[in-house]
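Milestone M4 deliverable, item 7.
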Amino acid sequence: MVVVQEDLLAVNSSFSKIIKRGIGKGPENCYTVLNANQLYVYIRNFMTPAEEILMNQKEYNLVMKYRSAVISALSNELLKDASQLLEISFDSMYQDWNFHTNSGVLLLVNNRPHPDIKLDENFNRKLFQLIRMVGSQFHKTPSEFKVIKYTENSCAIESKEIMFPLERLLIKKGNEDLLLTHTREIKKGYIQHKRLFEDLFNRSIEDIYMMWDCNQSKHYLIFSFKRPTP
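Output delivered:
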């Protein structure tokens, strides 16, 4: 099946309805991008009144746990709908939510190997050096980096073997609050160094998302670029 814009719009509509049914409020804006075997669903203006209250009370872990738990409970339905609508078998789904900017992203992945992204070797080397420099201040240096998406609107990087034994222990012991706080601090560290990435990309960065696969000790780092004004 050749995926056309109408198919992606159908995914937008389906996901908005499923999220509204689960959360009680659908996103005001939802748009989908298919890249090889990865589906990126960008969501804006999604916060419910209850989540806004929790954010005002600085209950960051609580609001993240609530949102993540509900979306995780809906993941099988979301994966099934996307797979049927696009006739692509998606195996895994990841999520991240930036409550301070009222934006989020869902990443659906088909686990089959996908073509490598052709990038300038010098740019590739500088990007990975920058990720090592910034990331090593907050988490274990990954054993492997791979750019899985690079367009005028975003760049997505997969990093493997990024968890220390202590982080694995936190997961094993169920210390979710500590892990959520740690994860939030890691993303904050990347945001603090946003200017360095903007200089490298030569683009303004609108949002940074980070999604973790703790079982496989990897994460996806997504830079969403600001669209040029007409």
